[in-house]
Amino acid sequence: MKARVHVMLKNGVLDPQGAAVRRALGTLGFEGVEKVRQGKIIELDLADGTTEDTVKDMCEKLLANTVIESYSIELV
Question: Could you tell me the keywords of this UniProt record (predicted)?
């Protein structure tokens, strides 16, 4: 089984990487982009029997900084 963890900065947290991407897109002629939020996807190959609760614990302890980031888990 696989799990995909999507990690994004929480609303209200400054996203300098997203702002840099937005500016770069404008420089390349893509003027329709008003805001960019950048995040990360972490894909985990899990052993049989690994539960979503275990993946949640991984997120809380290591994969996401829950003070400034939110996450969602997708089991595949």
Answer: ATP-binding, Cytoplasm, Ligase, Nucleotide-binding, Purine biosynthesis
